[in-house]
Write a structure and sequence with these properties.
This protein is an alpha+beta fold and about 200 residues long. About 45% of the residues lie in helices and about 25% in strands. The radius of gyration is 21 Å and the shape is globular.
Length: about 200
C-alpha cells in the first residue's frame, strides 16, 4: 500500500471516530445544554414576563413541533387553569440579524402582557435599545386577535429612533406569536394538560 493511501485510510478512521464521539456527546449532553439555555438565556425574560423566579417557571414548559421549527412555550396556572403563556419566536430581519423574542400571553384577558428580548446582535446604542423598558412596555395589553404594526405603518408601536429595522423585527416576531397562538391554542393546552 502506498504512503498516500495509508494516510487517507488513517485520516478517514480518525475522522469517523471523532464524528461518532461528538455525536454521542451531543446526544448525551443535549438535555443538559437545553436546561442551561433555559436558565441563563430564557430565564431573565421569563422572570420579567411572569413576575416569578425563573426556577419556578422553567419546569412548566412544552415544545410544539412544527414541520420547520420547534417552539418552546412556558406557562403558569391559576388553580387548575392555564392562565399565562410565554411563547418564543424569531423576529426576522433585524439590522444586526434576527431577534429572538418571547411574548407573554394572558389567556384570561385575551391580551399580551409583554415582550422580552431573549437574544440579539444589534448595534449598541441603536438597535440594542430594543431591550429598554420604554420600548418593550408598548407590548402590554395588546389584543391577541389583531396583528400589530409600527406607527409609521398605521399601528400603535413607536419604533426606536434610528432603529426602525430592529423595531420591525420585534413586531414581525410578535405577529408570528399571535398567529401561532390563534392557530394552535387547543394543541398548546392539550400538550400542557398531558404533563
Amino acid at each position: 500500500m502506498s504512503d498516500i493511501v495509508r494516510m487517507v485510510v488513517v485520516l478517514s478512521l480518525i475522522a469517523g471516530f471523532s464524528s461518532a464521539a461528538l455525536t454521542i456527546a451531543h446526544i448525551q449532553l443535549g438535555p443538559q445544554m437545553e436546561k442551561q439555555t433555559d436558565f441563563y438565556v430564557r430565564g431573565p425574560a421569563l422572570e420579567r414576563l411572569f413576575g416569578k423566579p425563573a426556577k419556578e417557571v422553567l419546569a412548566n414548559k412544552v415544545v410544539i413541533h412544527l414541520p420547520d421549527q420547534d417552539i418552546p412555550i412556558f406557562f403558569s396556572r391559576e388553580g387548575d387553569k392555564v392562565s399565562t403563556l410565554a411563547v418564543e419566536a424569531v423576529g426576522k430581519g433585524g439590522f444586526g440579524g434576527d431577534l429572538k423574542i418571547m411574548v407573554g400571553i394572558d389567556l384570561g384577558a385575551g391580551r399580551t402582557n409583554g415582550m422580552e428580548v431573549v437574544s440579539h446582535s444589534e448595534t449598541p446604542g441603536l438597535g440594542a435599545r430594543v431591550v429598554e423598558n420604554s420600548f418593550r412596555r408598548q407590548w402590554q395589553g395588546l389584543p391577541l386577535d389583531t396583528p400589530i404594526a409600527l406607527s409609521k405603518d398605521g399601528g400603535i408601536i413607536d419604533s426606536i429612533s434610528g432603529a426602525s429595522t430592529t423595531s420591525g423585527a420585534a413586531v414581525r416576531g410578535t405577529n408570528e406569536v399571535l398567529l401561532f397562538v390563534r392557530d394552535h391554542k387547543d394543541e398548546i393546552l392539550k400538550s400542557i394538560s398531558e404533563l
